[in-house]
Amino acid sequence: MKLIVLGSGTSTGVPRIGNDWGECDPDEPRNRRTRVAIMVEGGDGGRILVDTPTDLRHQLLATGIGRIDGVVWTHDHADHTHGIDDLRPLRMGRGAPIPGYAADETVRRLRQRFGYVFAGQHGYPTICNLDNLDRVRMVAGIGVSHCQMPHGPAQTTAFRFDQGGKSIGYATDFSAITGEMVALFARVDVLVVDALRRQPHPTHAHLAMSLELIEACRAGRAVLTHLDKSMDYRTLCDETPAHVEPGYDGLEIAL
């Protein structure tokens, strides 16, 4: 399996508009962060895209990705969905729409907001078929399991991807650790985990909470993501354990 970090930034990216780098060193290229997303690639080349962030076109061009075999969404917030139109070139040349999955409430909201993507319009074909996650156990030859996580007053979906005895976990946009999350990610090989900032936040994990989840599920390796402008790459490298690293756009980990 392979993990590709497409984007590692918070909803406003780093730098923020206005060239605001906060505490991030602008001369460190790994501090330049687009909106958060990952790609999971199986040993046979099957690819699952997780979320369709605002920067998706740029991310796919930067990583040379021109094909996917399925897409899953964590939740419906704008920074995770509003690049959905960039699925259209990925649909071209396919004999059928791209398979897509999300939790029930996310399905409802995506259909309400982007109906043309899932039903076609004005002669354009359906880009993506959208179904409930409870109906799927495998996408593109990769096992997919999930649970819901608290995201302030809302919920978001945690994912675990398994193939050939290897595993990748993904937990972004959560604000508390639950027993379901710990069970889902138990002994995962790589866990990609939200670590917005060092101070507590009402809807996101802060660094101490992220490290607590990594320890609780005994992840072999962890990658911090959804990092804001206070989270300088080099500084984080110096203060995290050896098996925990700050993520950056374009990071690839082969298992």
UniProtKB/TrEMBL annotation:
Pfam families: Lactamase_B_2 (PF12706). InterPro entries: Metallo-B-lactamas, RibonucZ/Hydroxyglut_hydro. Residues 47-226 form the Metallo-beta-lactamase domain. It comes from the Bacteria. Gene3D superfamilies: Ribonuclease Z/Hydroxyacylglutathione hydrolase-like. PANTHER family: HYDROLASE C777.06C-RELATED, HYDROLASE C777.06C-RELATED-RELATED. This is Phosphoribosyl 1,2-cyclic phosphodiesterase. It comes from Novosphingobium sediminis.
